[in-house]
């Protein structure tokens, strides 16, 4: 169970990093925070 949870967390972090890279590639992160 524990290893499965760790793998799930790793997948989520990888997805978040991918999403952040995709967003930052199109818009400035500061603009998103201010809006």
UniProtKB/TrEMBL annotation:
Highest taxon in the source lineage: Bacteria
Record protein name field: Uncharacterized protein
Annotated organism of origin: Agrobacterium deltaense Zutra 3/1
């Amino acid at each position: 169970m524990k290893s499965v949870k760790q793998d799930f967390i790793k997948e989520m972090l990888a997805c978040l990093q991918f999403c952040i890279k995709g967003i930052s590639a199109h818009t400035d992160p500061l603009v998103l925070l201010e809006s």
